Amino acid sequence: MKTGLILSLALAAAAFAAPPVVIQNAKVLTVTKGTFQGSVLIQDGKIVEAGEKVMVPPGARIIDAAGQYLMPGIIDAHTHIASESTNEGSISVSSMARIEDAINPEDISIYRALAGGVTTAHVLHGSANSIGGTTVVLKMRWTRDAAGLVFEGARPGLKFALGENPKRSGSGASPSRTTPRYPATRMGIEDVIRQAFVEAKQYQQAWGDYQAKVKSGVQATPPRRDLKLEPIVEVLEGKRMTHVHAYRADEILMMLRLAEELGFKIHSLEHGLEGYKVAKEIVAHGAGVSTFSDWWAYKMEAIDAIPYNAALMMRKGVLVSLNSDDLNANLSTRLNTEAAKTMKYGGLNETEALALITINPARQLEIDKRVGSIEPGKDADLVIYDKHPLSSFARVQKVFIDGEMYFDRDRDVSGRAEREVRKKALTDRQKEREKEQKKSFPTRRPS
Amino acid sequence: MKHAMLLLSLVLPAAGADPPPLAIRNARVVTVSGPVLKKATVVVKDGLIAAVGENIDVPKDAWVIEGEGLTVYPGLIDALSNWGIPEAAALAPAPAASGRTSTTPRPAPSATPDPSAPPPAQGPEDRPSNTSWQRAADLVKPTDRRLEAARSAGFTTAVTFPMTGIFAGQGAVINLAGEKAQQMVVASPVGQYLAFPAGSGFGGGGGFPGSLMGVFAYIRQLNIDADYYRQARLEYEKRPAGARRPDYDRASEGWLESPRILLPATRAMEIDRVLRLAAEVKKLAVVYGAHEGYKAADLLKKAGAPVLMSLKWPEKARDADPDQPESLRTLELRDKAPSTPAALAKAGVKFAFYTDKIDRPRDALRAVRRAIDAGLSVDDAVRALTLAAAEIYGVAGQIGSIEAGKIANLLVTSGDLFQEKTQVKFVLIDGVKFEPAPETPPAEEVAR
User: Fold this and answer.
1) Do A90 and B446 touch (CB under 8 A)?
2) Of A105, A246, B82, B85, which is least packed with CB atoms within 10 Å of its CB?
3) B204 vs A147: CB contact, 8 Å cut-off?
């Protein structure tokens, strides 16, 4: 009894101050500070030291990664996993919709992405609307609740969409849509976005006037709070990031000019398949692009997509990342090979290729002080691969987030038999229940 | 004289020839609020419990029922229902308490739009799927054919709600019998019923909201609007001259007069989600469904939110493909859902049962037995069918237990409520006796 108490106390203490972890003998791909054979020391969820030799504190847990590769956790800059709804597609401006409300922490896609080395994912509203909903950055802390997944301190974002998707949602071309929705053209999309910002500016003005009156002691009625306009005002005030779904060069230019006209910044162009055509203009605005490796011809507006896009833009100075755009973790389980493709198409070197899925998306999301590379002071979000991560034969072995191991291939494999046993037991009990039920509720038929 | 008579009839709406008092003598009385009385008498007068106890004088003019071998319980309460609203019976069977499904199927878009249909809603300001002002108390009818089956199973009371739309309307505590609809209502309004209809999201043409996050945004905005509306009304009423009057908004009115809101959540993560919403809109929340509540008991305790526990335990669909593999999570939920009541009781979360989509009210007690098999005490089970519901809706002063002064809603059985062989002898509703109808096989089986 007493030993039990002591044991549980010890466990509780351990939970508060997890022992330091040292990952040894790995090939460390830091992405920002070169590659070396060495070790990484993790303490209190942070990377404390990374080098050929690191201090091993007493009581540290040693993980021998001899012959293996250690890289920063992958950041998926654009995904739709872990969310129970993706589009509030009923209206063209749905900025009141929040992905955060629909987080499903039990979505198996989180675990699958984790097993693909993803530690951070930017979950966006879909592309049905000219202005979609607010986005959320999550860490793949599988088994935690919705609030526990949220990347604390990450700047909030707002999704925009141009081109075919918002056009199609509105045109009445979709058989399920009975009432056509404005806009149905690219011109209309520009108009809808401009109109929304004009409204938001009026709203901002109304609040400004009210606050000025209150300050000078004048009796005033506050304006009605409008949850649709608030995020747009936040964009105008630079408090909220913007992520714009755009494929074609012409609509990319339209959006950059519109943003400059209205006075806000585009932080990232999502997909940007024709970005290589207007890389100079994108750099001039200061936007990043989160694109695909080699997706092509799946819709008309993707007709000029080329697999060289990422490399070409990067060479012109665009901050580029690659994303999965997943609904059910599929591509996010192998973003490493997506990155590797840029070495064949465009000739990026290993570090540049890895940057596309680590430090670059971190910079785009402005979370690069916390994640995206292996550097002392950053979150211990790390992946151990058995082979070089840019090889298609590489398999993720272990994944750490905040220094805690959230995925372990051995644990997963060895746990499968036990899961099957549990499943079998539950299935048997269910069958028994069904039998019982038949006994107590015999189907009566008139004789 | 004339005035006096009018007054009298106002005070005693059910007047007329007063029925004589009724006494159930020497029965086992499960008072719920107090100890079980092994051999006691309950006296009912004027529709109220006049006295209960072991040494009670039976009034001379009383109609005496010998209670030897019988057990008296407070009448059972269905804590979330649409009994009494006959129109609801025709609708799809009661609520699916999940974030993704709904009681109200979205009308399937047809190829040719109906020209008379209103244009699709463009946002919260159009107040779509909103009848928050609607009161169940105004909709109930004693002619609802489901009432007899409910009474025959021992139910005397239901907390009944309109169930259409997102903001469906105000519930009422009703007694399941009455000459007139007005006599059925015990308390109103007792809460706002919310449901989260699922939508395709990708421009289905159904109007706002088309997704779960749209519904949440709507609830949040309506809460803000209602508050703004209240303030504006107050300002205006103080100084109407020279001020522009605020537009009348029945949706805000309905929201403001809701003493509590009922939120759907089956899974633990849905419970977590709706509790966060409730905290944000600062409304007293009641969670309904809660099959995975065994994982969320601490969360509910911390939030102080009571639970309406669905008795429709999740089971494999009858027409499910037997070869389709099922996830561990699904299997676990089916296995463990009936352990939720015990877990809630242990954590000190207040909960009451509701019959949900159970076809026959009688099957509700069989469903409770599964919760008892999974660890719920019989006392807690009885409480969750009686006093707990009354407490959750703030009507424990009127119903839910056998105490002098409370409404005479009683259930008299041949024995322990949860024994298979136990029969309902009769119920009293407002002191009026109803005997159970002979159990008939359900219609669908007769039809074969």
Assistant:
1) no
2) A105
3) no
